[in-house]
Amino acid sequence: MKVIIVGGVAGGMSAATRLRRLDETAEIIILEKGPFVSFANCGLPYYVSGEITEKEALLVQTPESLKARFNLDVRPFNEAIAVDAVKKEVTIQNQNEIYRENYDVLVLSPGAKPFIPPITGLKEAKNTFTLRNVPDLDKIMQALTPEVKRATVIGAGFIGLEMAENLQKAGLAVTIVEKAPHVLPPFDQEMASFIQKELVENGVKVITGQSAVAFQQAGEKIILEDGSSLTTDITILSVGVQPDTTLAKEAGIQLGMKGGIIVDENYQTNLAGIFAVGDAVVTKQQITHADTLISLASPANRQGRQVADVIFGLPRKNKGSIGTAIVRVFHLSAAATGLSETGALQAGLDYEVIHISGKDHAGYYPDATELTLKLIFNPKTGAIYGAQGVGAKGVDKRIDILATAIKGGQTIFDLPELEFTYAPPFGSAKDPVNMLGYSALNIVEGFSQNIQWHELTEEMKKGKLLLDVRNKAELTKNGKFSQAVNIPLDTLRDNLAQLDKEKAYIVTCHSGLRSYIAERILKQNGFDVVNLDGAFALYKMVKPEEIEYE
């Protein structure tokens, strides 16, 4: 069997090495149009700041090492320029010639390429770059001369934020421009607000709700859509990616969403003997079963292994992906899995949302840090639709657990039953994931009703009163809602007469724990009350301008 794989890195190399382990006799050729067939593209931004000190550390394998260990025929600087599916033949161009190779099986793993927006003056700009591979990194490093002082990052997604952090750590004054209303558009606004605050506190200027509409002066001047301008010495374009599927299209392979390659559950395209994996393929969002494009290393590696199994004859199926991802921004991490609240709304799902605050480990043990978790779930079935988390430590662990729960078909009813390792340096006896389960159960079983931060203004316009059960000292130190009535929780039972049972109340505290206790007290005393989910701390993070100080 002769297998040609177009494209290396995650999907292609996973397919090649797995297939070799399964079949020692197969002839396996990997075509890579660039110089490197196996590199850590997710680590590229960290070389910019020097956090990764040696570029060689980014080069995972070489053609020589792959030949020695796996007997693979790896051909860098060999670009597949045409496919004849009838003849089962690939036309290849290298630095010296154009030649052809026949195949029994063809695997396409071309990946995704940066999306280049049609901005006036971009072609004339001399200082704009994208970051996809090692040659791109080399160009950026060559441009970072001592004279370069100001950097602009267009796009505040994962790569954009990583580049902003590392350019700032490299000593540049950094500005981020993002068209969406907030940074990290895949996240919901309130969770992204933590990251936006972290950027600002570390000296990064953040401009949201704006896009670059023109480059002037060879790229040194950027015009924004409101007419304002930025002066920049270097610009990183990070406005998303798109499937790199020109070869597939010209070969007659059926394309779908945004030009992605359509494959079945066995990664088979519409052409016999041709498979595709990785960032270039349309996959299924496992929760909604809708078509989606997910450009992440973990799914690409899994798909590469699975397509090798399929080619060998093993019964593997592509079950889809839930899009689990994480990013570090200075001292915080933000992670997400499954659907956002926005995604659940767009999908027309019946859902509820809860937020909880906790510590990465026992609060009494030194160096405990705050983390905030969000859960989106079905209030009838308990199905978990998605989760997001932000914090200095321990976010990865909790989102990984919740991603596993989603993949395993577990529900909110299972979260309290999960058992984790516990000792004070590592966690809490009631882990934040357990607490998510308890809080969700309270909603489902009717012991608590909540409203979200974005619903507060409208609910108060309807006549509901806001009751803040924090202590007086907290109001002075941390700020307060302008129209809230304040009765500290520990005195609430003694002051019920101050409240009007003819009125409906929204109760809040700092994080939501005390307000839930207050909600239970008031409900059992005949009051109409709901809890402000996430409470004062979350609202202040999203809308600091609405907070009053004494």
Give me a quick take on this structure.
With 550 residues, this protein is an alpha/beta fold.
3D architecture notes:
The chain is α/β, with parallel strands linked by helices. It contains 15 helices and 33 strands. Helix 6 packs across helix 15 (535-542). The radius of gyration is 27 Å and the shape is globular. The chain starts with a strand and ends in an 8-residue tail after the last helix. The model has no long low-confidence stretch (mean pLDDT 96).
Main pleated-sheet profile: 5 strands, parallel
Number of alpha- plus pi-helical segments: 15
**Structural class estimated from helices and strands:** alpha/beta
Rounded Rg: 27 Å
Shape: globular
* Binned strand content: 25-35%
Distance between the termini: 77 Å
| pLDDT averaged over residues | 96
Q: What quaternary form is this?
A: single chain
Which parts are unreliable, with pLDDT below 50 for 5 consecutive residues or more?
A: none
State the helicity in percent bands. Answer: 25-40%
Number of strands: 33
The spatial strand order of the largest sheet comes to 5-2-1-9-21
